[in-house]
Amino acid sequence: MGESAAAAPADAEAAKNSEVDGPTVVNIADAGDIVLDVTFETSRETLRKSQKASALALKKPSGAPQPALKSKVTVAFRVSQAALKKHSQYFANLLSNPKFSEASAIDEAHKKLEKLKIEPGKADAADLPWIRITDDDEATKAAGREHVFEDMLKIIHQKPLKAPRVALSEVATMAILADRFDCLTVVARSLNGIRWPVTNNRPFADDSGRNTDAEQMLREKILVSWLLSNGMKLHQAARELVVRGSRLWSDYSEEREELTAAWWHLPEGIEEELKYRRECVLNTIASVQRHFLDLYCSKERQCKLGYDSSGACDSFQLGQMLKFLVSKNLLFLVDYTSPSLEAVPDGAMINIDDLLNTLKQCPNYQIDKHHTNCGLKIRMDPIIDYIRTMLSASGTSIAHADWKKRRSEVSWTQLRDRRLREDEEEVKFVFTRAVASDQRLRYEAAMYTDRLSKGLFTASSWDWTPEA
Question: pTM here?
């Protein structure tokens, strides 16, 4: 609580000077008994990025004022001490705890008004205690936060917002501010009903390879839904990030230190959890390709024609399999030279849904008309369908209540760490006919489906044809 407090001058001349030289006083509560003197500091980088967005916003009709794009903006808000204490634990501590100078400053200023027989709610703003607070943009990376902060105070005081329609970026900024000032409960009631922009049909990068704002918006959804305790939106947005990936999850990413906004480093272990869950899903899908490549490279006959089974059929299927996987950029043939290894693309932003759809495109290759059941497709299609069903299960995403109350039970990263710590034996997933035809797969929200999906994706190894 490193903010210091200062009582404003009580005499008329000082009040006059405060009105002329001091910050503008915004009346949140007309009968407010204190003034929050808030300085908003914004970095040059944030200001530069906000210039373009601000220029576009000026061309559109809007009920909200445009942000003041300055490195330092100070605004004074006349507020009710009681309302702040009721809805914010931060302000309850700051304004009441005698350990903080702000509490004693309020008492002294109110005692002076009492001697003058002036009620604080009817006093001039200059005569009220002024509480100084500084807010930087490290977590929000947003300019014009004074307008968002004002709306947050209006919510605390049960007043209508300036702009009835609030952009996602503003909601994210308000959620971060509400988290800092510990008033998330009252803010959540006001903001949880807003409509969110769709991101799953927008690419993370444009045709020229430049990053769009789609990933940022998706991450803002996750952060906001977590902070505002919106379980359904958290589940949807978290699953989308698992499926689509992130440029920060690449081993070659050079942006980790540059992107410092709160949504680029999701709190409460969510960032690591989503990254690991995606790795688990990708490892599971990759195991299907490895499994069949190993089978057709082995000496064990895979041709299903019975007495007329043919080694030539196996060689043909192996060649067609390689041809298909390489042509679809699902397999890369490299040697030990550096240029060759660099040809392998980074999988951090491969869309998992697109990956599964591509695998389903595998043709049913036949060496002749008699070899109808020898190809990869007839053996792989049920596996891909099963993986897709497991991916759609609610257990592959994060549930707000579970993550809050029983994280150790649902976390995949903690399961991984326990296995390593206790040196558990390899966990093998076996794809049997019974697994493929399990009736529980019809019910996506069933608890059993969540367990099945977690067992599939957190396995150490996979046997995709135990009954072949």
Answer: 0.85
The predicted-structure confidence for 252-274, as pLDDT tens digits, reads as follows 777 877 888 999 999 999 999 99
Tokens of 265: 């480093």
Nearest by Cα to 461 from 418, 431, 421, 420? 431
Closest CA to 455 of 396, 367, 403: 396
Euclidean distance between CA atoms 249 and 401, whole angstroms: 26
% of the chain exceeding 90 in pLDDT: 53
**Residue whose token pair is 């001349």:** 13
What residues contact residue 354 under an 8 Å CB cut-off, 6+ apart?
Answer: none
Place of tokens 């480093």: 265
Q: What value, to the nearest 5°, has the Cα angle with vertex 193 and ends 192 and 199?
A: 85
What count of other Cβ atoms lies within 10 Å of the Cβ of residue 376?
Answer: 25
Interval 361-389 mean pLDDT: 81
CA dist 373 → 314, 352, 359, 433 (Å): 12, 27, 18, 17
Q: Decide which of 310 and 121 is more confident.
A: 121
pLDDT at residue 275 is higher than 60 = yes
Which pair of structure tokens corresponds to residue 291? 């499994």
Name the amino acid, one letter, at 13. Answer: E
Residue whose entry in the numeric block shows the structure tokens 């109110």:
110
| 10 vs 341, residue with greater confidence | 341
Residue 113's closest CA among 96, 97, 126?
Answer: 126
Q: 457, 284 in Cβ contact below 8 A? A: yes
Q: How far is the CA of 123 from the CAs of 7, 11, 84, 103, 420, in angstroms?
A: 13, 12, 19, 19, 65
Is 76 in contact with 130 (CB distance < 8 Å)? yes
The total number of residues written for the chain in this structure: 468
